[in-house]
Specification:
The chain has 21 helices and five strands. It has a five-stranded parallel β-sheet with strand order 2-1-3-4-5, with helices on both faces. The chain folds into three domains: about 1-120, Rossmann fold (3-Layer(aba) Sandwich), CATH 3.40.50; about 140-215, no CATH class; about 220-375, Hypothetical protein af1432, CATH 1.10.3210. The chain has about 375 residues and is an alpha/beta fold. The chain has helices at about 10-20, 35-40, 60-70, 85-90, 105-120, 125-130, 140-150, 155-165, 170-180, 190-200, 200-210, 230-245, 250-260, 265-270, 275-285, 290-300, 300-310, 315-325, 340-350, 355-365, 365-375, and strands spanning about 1-5, 25-30, 45-50, 75-80, 95-100.
Length: about 375
């Protein structure tokens, strides 16, 4: 793991070098943005950590150049309370935020997470394509609805949550932001209404404009058998069913993971439309699932890609695991009916796929399965 640290203050980098978990990592530091770009052109790095206030090239501009030149590099921004405007600009190009003062322990946790996420994508070309993403596409209808609501001074959290909850791309981006170190107050947020309340209507309006989340929908290239509206409708059905299948304590996370399960399709459609079109054509011609056609080409699917994107953005492990395994139940570690199992069951029932009876037996009884099947017809 090679890390390039770009900041005036070298204490975090020095602390990181003393961390036992960092043994074997290659660590380099520079105080200049232009020097950092030159070093990236000379050698391959896995992670760039940049302060918002970088000499001769601010953090946002630096990470934008990193994204353009080296899209497979994970981009992390360091920001403090006084860096509000600069941090908002950097949000377009950073995968994650770390709050200043940053500890070596906190940075180590983020880098270790990055190592695990990189293993989800073995194909460097797809990883590089996904690395160019700073936004996911959203259906134009939802964008118009949200924009109209945000323009109203009397908009309530409930109304904004209702709109945001219709769309997986918007939900993913807002959760990325609310769980970043810049906005977070400690406990992770996986509930959309809580995210809306935490950020506030005004901040959501600014983020919507800053990220231009919805503009990407104009350039989406989905296979002919898929539309944004169809994906959106299925995401809502899977989310609702996953929430009903899950235990009450897991219902909110299961709903959210179900809503985000297919964001990898949007990521592929934006960053690597040719790959998705090829898999879509094979699936249509052979009558196989799109998931299986994707696997036959690159040994990676929209499930792993979606999990990689969400994990890089800093969403919690429970949601990342559920997204990565929503078509691969044998990779789900726990025997009990957790979030990942609930999302897999919901997806299989909505898509009328065959269920693995042995696994279903671990997760529930025949009576539970009958109840879940009935619920699938109601969402």
């Amino acid at each position: 793991m090679k890390i390039l640290f770009v900041a005036d203050d070298s204490r975090v980098l020095e602390g990181l070098a003393r961390e036992p978990r960092a043994e074997g990592w290659s660590l380099e530091g520079t105080q200049s943005g232009r020097a950092a770009l030159a070093r990236l052109d000379e050698a391959r790095f896995d992670v760039v950590v940049a302060d918002v206030a970088v000499r001769d090239l601010d953090g946002a501009a630096l990470l934008d150049e990193v994204r353009r030149r080296h899209p497979n590099v994970v981009r992390i921004i360091l920001s403090g309370a006084r860096d509000g405007d600069a941090a908002m600009r950097a949000a377009r190009v950073a995968h994650q935020f770390l709050a200043k003062p940053c500890t070596a322990h906190g940075l180590t946790n983020v880098v270790e997470r990055t190592v695990a996420l990189q293993q989800l994508l073995a194909d460097d070309s797809i990883r590089a394509a996904v690395g160019t993403l700073d936004q996911l596409p959203s259906a134009p209808r939802v964008f118009a609805e949200l924009t109209e609501a945000l323009e109203r001074e009397d908009s309530t959290p409930e109304r904004i949550t209702q709109i945001v909850g219709k769309d997986p791309a918007i939900s993913a981006k807002l959760l990325q932001v609310v769980n970043s170190a810049f906005f977070s107050r400690g406990r992770p947020i996986h509930d959309l209404r809580a995210a809306v309340v935490r950020l506030g209507v005004r901040t959501i309006r600014n983020l919507a404009l800053a990220f231009e989340v919805f503009a990407a929908s104009r350039n989406v290239a989905l296979p002919k058998t898929l539309t944004l509206e169809d994906l959106q409708e299925k995401a809502l059905r899977v989310a609702k069913l996953a929430g009903r299948i899950a235990k009450p304590a897991d219902a909110a996370e299961a709903f959210l993971a179900g809503l985000l399960a297919d964001v990898g399709l949007l990521a592929l459609a934006t960053a690597a439309p040719g790959v998705l079109a090829q898999a879509g054509a094979v699936a249509s011609a052979s009558g196989t699932r799109l998931y299986d056609a994707e696997r036959s080409f690159h040994d990676v699917t929209h499930a792993e890609i979606g999990a990689y994107v969400l994990g890089t953005w800093g969403l919690g492990y429970t949601i990342v695991e559920a997204v990565a395994n929503h078509h691969a139940p044998r990779r789900i570690a726990q025997d009990g009916l957790g979030v990942a199992a609930s999302v897999h069951l919901a997806m299989a029932l909505i898509e009328t796929d065959a269920l693995d009876e042995e696994l279903v037996g671990r997760w529930g009884s025949s009576a539970d399965l009958a109840r879940w099947r009935e619920a699938a017809t109601e969402v």
